[in-house]
Task: inverse folding
C-alpha cells in the first residue's frame, strides 16, 4: 500500500518530462499535465473550503501506517490525480483504438491497468489511515471529471489541427 500511495503522489508527474521533451508525445503529455494541474488546483481549493481533519487527527483509534500528512483530508488528491490520469489515458487511447481496431485489445489492457492502479492508489489512502472513504470517493469522481474533460479538450484540439492541416493542403 505504501508503494501504491507513492505511485499516486504528485511527484510521479516527473515521469511526464521525457514525454514532453519528445516531439511525438509533446501535445499529449502537455494536455495530461494541464489536466493534472487543474485537478490539483480544484483539490486544493476544496481542501481549503471544506477544512475536514484527517482520520489520524479526528479519530483517536486511527494511527497512520505511513506518514502523517498535515493538510486537510477532503478530497483525496492522490485519488483525484490517479483517476484523472486513468480517465484521460483511457479516453484518448479508446479514441485511437476506434481509428485502428487492431489496438482494441491493447487498449482494454491499458485501461484495465490504469483503472486498477487508480483504485489501488485510492484504497491505499484509506488503508494507511490518512483519508476517510468519502475523501477518496469524492477524489475519484473529481479526478474522473477532470480527466474526461481534459481528454475531450485534447481530442477536440487534435481534430481541429487535423481539419486545419487538410484545409491548408487545399
Result:
Amino acid at each position: 500500500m505504501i508503494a501504491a500511495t507513492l505511485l499516486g503522489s504528485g511527484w510521479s508527474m516527473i515521469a511526464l518530462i521525457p514525454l514532453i521533451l519528445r516531439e511525438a508525445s509533446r501535445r499529449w503529455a502537455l494536455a495530461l499535465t494541464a489536466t493534472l494541474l487543474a485537478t490539483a488546483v480544484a483539490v486544493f481549493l476544496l481542501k481549503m473550503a471544506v477544512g475536514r481533519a484527517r482520520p489520524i487527527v479526528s479519530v483517536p483509534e486511527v494511527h497512520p501506517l505511513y506518514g502523517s500528512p498535515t493538510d486537510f483530508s477532503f478530497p483525496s488528491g492522490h485519488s483525484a490525480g490517479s483517476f484523472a490520469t486513468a480517465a484521460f489515458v483511457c479516453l484518448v487511447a479508446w479514441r485511437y483504438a476506434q481509428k485502428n481496431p487492431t489496438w482494441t485489445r491493447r487498449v482494454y489492457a491499458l485501461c484495465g491497468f490504469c483503472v486498477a492502479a487508480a483504485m489501488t492508489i485510492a484504497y491505499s489512502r484509506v488503508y494507511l489511515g490518512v483519508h476517510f472513504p468519502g475523501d477518496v470517493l469524492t477524489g475519484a469522481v473529481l479526478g474522473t471529471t477532470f480527466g474526461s474533460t481534459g481528454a475531450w479538450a485534447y481530442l477536440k484540439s487534435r481534430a481541429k489541427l487535423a481539419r486545419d492541416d487538410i484545409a491548408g493542403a487545399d
Notes: Helices lie at 2-7, 17-21, 26-50, 55-58, 77-99, 104-127, 133-169. The chain is about 75% helix and 0% strand.
